[in-house]
Every structure is written in C-alpha cells, then in structure tokens.
C-alpha cells in the first residue's frame, strides 16, 4: 500500500505517522520524506507491506494526527486512467501505446485525441479509440470544446500532451490542475517559444534536452517533473537535432509518467518534489 | 546533528526513533531510510536541527529503543582525519589536497605516504607531511610495516588509496575494516587485474569507468561506493583511454569521499547503502 | 551517396580518393576517416552530394587506386533487410516494429522469429510475419535448422537478436559473419554468463548498462558497437534492475542499429570503428 | 604536426590538401573535416606524422591551393601562453594550476589576475605570479586599464576567465577576439544574468549545467565550446546547487581548454566546430 502525505511541517510528524502504521502492524518497506524548511512544508511517500481494508478510515486517522489542510492519498487508483493528446509526431505516443498494450505503463489509455488524423492508424492497431478533432473549419474555442467534452467523458486521472502542438486555454487547464503532463522540446526555460531547435542549432549548442512538466497557465512554465539531455555537435543539422531530440523526449516523458503514476511526484509553489 | 543507525528491522522503528527526536524537540530536517527486506536490515540517516549537549546519553536512549546489536553514530567526528597513500599519479591526490587546503574536503589530511617520491613536492607546497616509504631494498612486509606504523600514528578515520599501486596485505586491511577507500581504474568487476585499459582498448569498448570502493581482502572486490563512466571511441589509443580514465577517477573518488565523510554510506554483506 | 572504404593504409590515400571524387564533380559533404597506426589500416566513410549512375564502375575505379584487397561499398542497399529473433521480452522488438512501421528504422523487417509465441500478436498488429519455432519437442539442432531456413528465405542484410535467449551455433553464426547484432544485458565483459542482474545486485553496483555487439563465436565477446549505462542505487531490487536495464537495452540497440544501417560501423580484429 | 584550415568550400579541397601532404611524404594520422553546406564553409584539422622544417613555406603552399582568404595554422605554438582572471572562487583556478604544475594543461600560465586577493596564496604555492587589481577605489575603466596592461605584458594566446565576476568592456574583448574563454554557471542561454542558481532552484530544475564559451560583446552569448550537466533534485538547496555546479564548471572548463589548446575548435558565425 502506498500512502502519500503533504502538509505543514511540525515536530513529531514522522513519529506520529509511523506510530499509526506500527499500531496497524504495517511494516514500513520504504519511506521517502522531504521537508522544505523555508516554506515549512512536509512531504512523505510511504510504502507499507499491507493493505488497509478500509482506506477511508485510515485516511481519517492520518488526518487526525496531521496539521490542518493536510493532503492524504492512500494507494490512489493503482490503475490510473489517462487520455493522450497528439498532433502528428509518433514517437511519444507509440511508446505509450506499447507500454499500455504490454501492461507496463502504470495507467490505462482511455483514448487518444489528435488534431490531425495521421496517428489514427497506430491507435487502431492497438485497439485504442482515436478521435480526430481538427482545428480547421472551426474556431479554436469550438475545437477545444470538443476536446474537453471527449476528455471529460473518459474521466481521466491525467491528461498527457504527447507532442500536442496546440496551446490549450486556461479554461481547459483549470479543469485538470496539475493533472496535465506535457513534454517540451529543448530545455526549459531556455529557448522558450517557437523553433527552439532552430535557435539551438544557430547557437551551436553542444547539448539538447527535453523537459516533462505539469501544465500551468504560463506557457512551458509549469512544475518540472523530469529532464534529460543528449550531447550533440557541429555535425548535427537542425533536422538532426530534431531527430535526436525525439529520442530524449520519448525517454524523459516515459520516465516522468512512471514517476507520476507511481505516486512519487508532489507539487507546490510551481515546483515538484520527486521521491524516488 | 547527523544520526546514523543500522540494525535489525522491526515494526515501529521509525516511529520510536522519531518520537525520541520529538521528545527532545529536534525537528527532523532530512530523513533517509532503507530496509533490506530479504535481509531484514534497517538503515537510517537522520539530520535534525539541533545538537545534543550529551551525545552519549542520546546514543544510549537510541540503543534502548532499538533491537540488540544496533549500530548508532551521532554526528561522528565532523572533521574526519584521513591518511592518503599514493604512488606516482597526481590526479586524485592533487584534487584531495586542493579541497583540503580550501576546507571543502569534509576531512583533514594528516599526511600522505608514497612508495615513490615524485608527489612529495606537491604535498610540501600545501604544507601536508609526505613520507616516502620505498618498497625497493626491503621486503614487502617491511615496507608495509613502516606504512602501518605511520598510518597508525595519525590515528585516521579513513585511509584513502589515491592510486596506490601496491597491494596491501590482509593484515593491514584488517586494521581498518571498511575504512580504507580505493579508486579502481575501469569497471568493477570487469577487466579485473592488470592492464585493464589495455584490455578495454583491445576490446574496443565505447565506455570507460571508475569505481570507488571500500577495500576488503579480495582484490578489487570490496563494497562499491560510487561509479561513473565516460564515453570513448575508436579514436582513443590505450594512452588516451588512460588520460580520459584519470578524469573519471578523480571525479568518482571525490564524490565517494564526500558521501563517506558526510556519513551517507552504510556497509553490509559486501555492498553499500548510500543515502543521498 | 555514401562510400565506405576499408584497406591497408598508405601515404596519399585521401588524396587519391578525393581526387577521384573531384574528377566526377562529387562535392564531399562529410568525410570521416580513421587510421589504426599500429595495424596499418585505413577506414573511410564518405558522403558526397551526387549519385553514381553506375556504381560498379565507380567501385572499380576506387579499387584501382587503393591497395590490394580493399573493401569498397557504395551506398550499399539504402533499404536494408533484416530478420529479428526474439524470445519473450517485448521491449526491443516493439521499438523496432514501431520504427519499421513509421519508416524511420533505416531497414525493413522481413519477419520475426520467436522461440516462444507471446510476441506473435504485436507482430500481427504491425502486419509483420511472425514464425514460432519452439525448441520444445525437438533437438536444438532441429530448431536451429528451421530458424536458419526461415532466415535464409528472407535473404537479410542483418539478423537482429532482440533479446533472443538461445545460443546460436557457430554454424549459424558463420552464415552471417559480422551481420548478426545482439543486445546484451549488463556490461560486457563484466558479469559474463547467466544471471548478470543478480550478480550486479549482489555486488551493489551503482551503474547498470547494456552493450550492442556483433556476434562472434565466443559468447558475448564479439565487436562492440554501442554501450550505455544508467545509474542505479541500493533501493533497486534485482527486479528493478531488470526493469531499468530494459530501458537502456532498448535505447542502445536502437542506437547501434541506426549506426549500422547508416553504414557507420567498420569491423576488424574483434573491434569496431564507428564513424559518427 | 597539426594543420588547421578554415576556408570557403569548393570541390576537390581534400584532394588538393592531401595530395600536398603526400608530396611531402607526410602520412595523415588523423583527419577531421567539416563542411557547413548552407554557409559553404570548409573546416579541417589534420594530424600528420612529420614536422615541416619550414612551416612558412608549407603554409604558403597550402594557401596557394586554397580559395582566397583561407585561414591556415600549422602546429601553432605547441606551448600556448595563457593569463587567468579570477575573483574569489577557487575551483576552476586550482584545477588549472594543478595541470599547469604537472605539465598536462597544454599551455603555460603566465600569471593570474584577481580583483580580490584571496586566491593569491594558492598561486604563490605554485610559483605563479598573482596580481591583485581591485575595482574598489578606482573607476571600472581604471581597473580594466590596469588589467589590460598586465595581460598585454604576458602576450598570451588566450585569456581564461576562471570565474571572473566582473564584466569586461567591449574594448578589452576586442583586443583578444575569440581568444577569451569564459565558464558560465548554469545553462546558456537559460537563466541569463544574475543569480541563475537561485532562478534554477525556484524553478525546481532537475539538471544544472555549465557552458564554456568564447567571449563576444553580448553578455554570455559567445560561441559555445563545451557544455555539461549534472542531475539535481528537490533535496538540493540553492547553496547545494552552487556546490554541485562548481564540480561541473571545473570539469567543463578543463575539457574546453584541452580542446582549444589542442587546436580542435574553429569559430564562425557565433558558433563553433569542434573536431574531436
């Protein structure tokens, strides 16, 4: 059983929590804890070797010994539901579909929504519903309305933007606060905006990277979950950098999803605590 | 104050330990814990925001609530003492001397012992005593006897083999169990023995690495503290690989020493737990 | 057009080769060259901005100016054909199938042969023929005979062992010399043989890796094409190490295949030259 | 002998150059070449196994066969001279002094100039002249005048800013065009300006890096020579990030200096070609 706690810090928190576990005869197999001293915040991920018959009661018992407004989640939805939004690039989506098909994603893909149709076939091959919502011939608001409606029908735990090249409105984002995960080409906060690979190429960078982050309302500025880089050199054209970037994007999004679906990521103050 | 605990695992350990901290009004700033479930062993590194006036009493209080034979160390010697053994290569020693001089090593170098004299001058420049104990003209046993005597005079917490190219006897090793740190060229357990770079070159490896480990009586087989690699390619001669390897050796030894001197490394069953 | 040359080294080789290119008005876009001085061997990969109408004539012209026994390949089969051998693990195969489907593999998968049937369905989903050749109920020799026959029918440029857990005989290997590519868990030459992850776990390694190599007749000892590592720590069980290892295996095999299919890998003396 | 060529590209350049080498009976041991197709520029680094008795004649012979305005350097100053500018941080300077002392820097340090005096002692220990030029009590222009005068007396090939925390004027920079090397904390072009580690901490980045670059007149925007990163996590305070950053700064500056002093770095259009 996994227990996740986020609350105001105070002396004796670990003691009270682990005493409660001991009282229930749950042995603590793994305990990750972090205190943000400056902000007086406490984060804990607890893995114990039993399962509560009644998680609501355990949750209440935890809240009773924690400071007010504590956030407690007990083994929340072992099989999380996700919706994936895509445009034309296949690399992140295919990786998700493969893991979904073989049961190693840690979540199940309810459907894929694309603003282009090119990725419909690969979804069909894996028996995953694909919805094509074009932005052509209708307003951005109308298209997003259709997307919102489809996403809400799936009632997902998380929405994954797997190279979705349209900017979603604050209204959409606010429906899924810190539950939308995006993969961003190049480094955040470097080269914010359009054509980052072109910018990187012209600057002659020796590394390119990718960042997986939660979506907030500031473009590409939400809390960072994971980052990785790969080395490049002068022999890379801008197109080669894009190709190399796709490998690192696929890898870093996979890593971020695993962390999130495994309840290892806490969010506060536009940053994350990742208890590995 | 840093508290380090290693003992048999049982339900409620974290609770009892942190309750004791709470009773003393020590707030837990950082808590790293690991349980080896198969071996039923418990490891904890605790950083609290106070200092015990009487560490012996606190240690006794901890032992009273822990299973028998628990190992407890409280902020053990913030300024650890080390002796460094070298042969001819400067890279690891110079890095240690620089950090020692600028006060960022986390330990103080009592003296350097070399079986060659070439590194005497760099020690002199940093006002660190250098002893030249040649293996020429005397038996290995005699030379090691002189080294042992010099090391014991310094009463060090750790002995660092910074590219010391002689094999120390089990007798020497047993004087400092899990307190001798070695840096080994190339990967452990790959290319064990002589000329690893030559072996690596002939195999056309694409990575070379270094391993910092505690010394046990099996050559190059003690518990691993840290490992790193760097990429190489066909353009590297065996000599280039040695040069590149020195960079990674310097870096990985520095990292391992920092972890050990910061009380983050536990040893059991010929392996380590490193709580970062 | 890509031109690949491997021959005895002598003064003036680059001059003669590039003079020939100039005479044909081929501008050299990229030139990678390596000389193994000790072995007196010369390797060159040339990318020029034109295509020879008659590659056989150009090849002859090159051989005329090179030392005897030179190996020359001109843009050899831009669309290479491969056969993939698998057992039960999906990660490397799925990555290959996805790239094959989207046309970014640099080769086309003729068929997949498995000694278990579990990966038949994923091949079927991508319209790639899957053949199940069980080793149960027949001798190893009989099973390998069936595999050989199937592979030969596809007339592949390369055979990829994508986690094929059976050892192929020297007879099979000699049919495809330096044209069989294997991905090996853990490091070569470390932990050779069975249960490398168990060995790595028990040693408490801090890195695990994977090696893609050509298959020779010494088990896991053929020329290395690419290697990568990922950091692990004491929190990884042996099973976690296997999971982490799969990510690095997938990544390093993909990289090795790209290098081979792009004609960047030369083999000699049981090692490779990789001109990137 | 190392020969470095940068010129307009045209068909047959490699042929003419290597024919000239063959005529002189210089065997080409290593040849690195790059063509920027879009800009029609040609770069070559040639290592041959002989030394020209008369480099000026060879240089003229090369210019005769190259397009107009070609830049040719023949084994330029095997022992380059450098001046190092510092402020208070020791990590980069100490690394340079150690390599300088042991003869592995590829250049010789003529003197160190600091706008604070704290690093005088470590220079004295290595018998390297240290000049303290304070910016206190005089105008920035006056201080820079003194620095300029001292640097010019040493007639250095390169000026290394090893954590020099003052901004040099365009006038100073123009005296040493593409011959001033700086190490910049954090990523370029991310977090440009003050307190990058604070910015990185507040953003919760998972990687921090360092960039070594030539100095141009736009702050932190000159051609990039080398970049590296290290992973960090939520457990790092801003101070920990600074400490970790120093390790990567030291390492990346060392790598960049080695590349530059080994004549592997070409500059054009505010970017570099690094032929490794």
UniProtKB/TrEMBL annotation, chains A, B, C, D:
Q: Which Pfam families match?
A: ACT (PF01842), Formyl_trans_N (PF00551)
- The answer to whether the entry has keyword Plastid is no
Report the GO molecular function annotations: formyltetrahydrofolate deformylase activity
Q: What class of enzyme is it?
A: hydrolase
Q: Which residues form the active site?
A: 220
Q: Which InterPro entries match?
A: ACT-like_dom_sf (IPR045865), ACT_dom (IPR002912), Formyl_transf_N (IPR002376), Formyl_transf_N_sf (IPR036477), PurU (IPR004810), PurU_ACT (IPR044074)
- Keywords assigned: Hydrolase, One-carbon metabolism, Purine biosynthesis
CDD domains the record matches: ACT_F4HF-DF (cd04875)
User: What positions does the domain ACT occupy?
Assistant: 2-77
Query: According to its UniProt record, in which pathway does this protein act?
Result: Purine metabolism; IMP biosynthesis via de novo pathway; formate from 10-formyl-5,6,7,8-tetrahydrofolate: step 1/1
| SUPFAM superfamilies with a match to the protein in the record | ACT-like, Formyltransferase
Query: What is the role of the protein in this entry?
Result: Catalyzes the hydrolysis of 10-formyltetrahydrofolate (formyl-FH4) to formate and tetrahydrofolate (FH4).
Q: What is the name of the protein in this document?
A: Formyltetrahydrofolate deformylase
Species for this entry: Mucilaginibacter roseus
Q: What is the lineage of its organism?
A: Bacteria, Pseudomonadati, Bacteroidota, Sphingobacteriia, Sphingobacteriales
């Amino acid at each position: 059983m996994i227990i996740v706690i986020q609350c105001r810090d105070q002396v004796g928190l670990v003691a009270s929590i682990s005493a409660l576990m001991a009282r229930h005869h749950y042995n603590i197999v793994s305990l990750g804890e972090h205190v943000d001293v400056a902000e007086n915040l406490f984060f804990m991920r607890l893995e114990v070797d039993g399962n509560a018959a009644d998680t609501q009661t355990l949750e209440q018992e935890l809240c009773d010994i924690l400071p007010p407004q504590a956030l407690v989640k007990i083994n929340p939805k072992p099989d999380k539901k996700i919706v994936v939004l895509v445009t034309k690039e296949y690399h992140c989506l295919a990786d998700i579909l493969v893991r979904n098909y073989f049961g190693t994603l840690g979540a199940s893909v309810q459907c894929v929504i694309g603003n282009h149709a090119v990725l419909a076939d690969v979804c069909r091959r894996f028996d995953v519903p694909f919805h094509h919502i074009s932005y052509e011939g209708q307003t951005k608001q109308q298209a997003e309305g259709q997307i919102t409606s489809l996403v809400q029908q799936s009632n997902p735990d998380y929405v994954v933007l797997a190279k979705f090249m349209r900017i979603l409105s604050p209204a959409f984002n606010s429906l899924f606060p810190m539950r939308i995960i995006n993969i961003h080409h190049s480094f955040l906060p470097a080269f914010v905006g359009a054509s980052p690979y072109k910018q990187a190429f012209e600057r002659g960078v020796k590394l390119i990277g990718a960042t997986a982050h939660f979506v907030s309302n500031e473009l590409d500025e939400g809390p960072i979950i994971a980052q990785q880089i790969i080395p490049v050199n002068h022999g890379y054209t801008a197109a080669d950098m894009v190709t190399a970037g796709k490998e690192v994007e696929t890898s870093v999004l996979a890593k971020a999803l695993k962390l999130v679906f495994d309840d290892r990521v806490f969010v506060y103050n536009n940053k994350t605590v990742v208890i590995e």
